[in-house]
Every structure is written in C-alpha cells, then in structure tokens.
Design a protein that fits this description.
By secondary structure, the protein is mostly helical. The protein has one domain: lambda repressor-like DNA-binding domains (434 Repressor (Amino-terminal Domain)), CATH 1.10.260.40. Helix content is 63%, strand content 0%. Helix 2 packs across helix 3 and helix 2 packs across helix 4. The radius of gyration is 11 Å and the shape is globular. The mean pLDDT is 95.
C-alpha cells in the first residue's frame, strides 16, 4: 500500500486548487511552466517531490507567489 507524504499531498492540493481557480488544464500549466504534463499530474496527486526551482516555475505560471502556493504546507 502506498503511503503518501502529507507535505506533498498538501502541495499537490494547492497546485490543483490554484490551477482550477485559473480555469487552466494540467497541459496548459505544464506548457507555461515549461514542465511535462505528467510531472504536473504527479505533483497534484502527491506522488512527486518537486525541487524549489520547479515550485517557483509553477507559481509563476499560475500568477501567484511561492509562499501562496505553499500555504498550509507544514513540515
């Protein structure tokens, strides 16, 4: 059984929420952030652990700050 990291799950929820608020598909977000759509999907599902550079790319693509994207993500 796969146990998901609560930190990654929280970040994934924030990414998905911000993306949906902008009415953006995963593919569009990936295109703007210059990342692979499957990578975005993995982040949203809490399966990927993105580096800070990719978190910054995603935040910029969503038009929000890194701190907004990481709100409520506690170690």
């Amino acid at each position: 059984m796969l146990i998901r990291d609560p930190l990654l799950t929280a970040l994934g929820k924030n990414v998905r929420g911000a993306r949906e608020k902008k009415e953006m598909t995963q593919e569009k977000l990936a295109e703007i952030a210059e990342l692979d759509p499957t990578y975005i999907s993995g982040i949203e599902r809490g399966l990927r652990n993105p580096g800070i550079k990719n978190v910054a790319k995603i935040a910029k693509a969503l038009g929000i700050t890194v701190s907004e994207l990481c709100k409520g993500v506690a170690a």
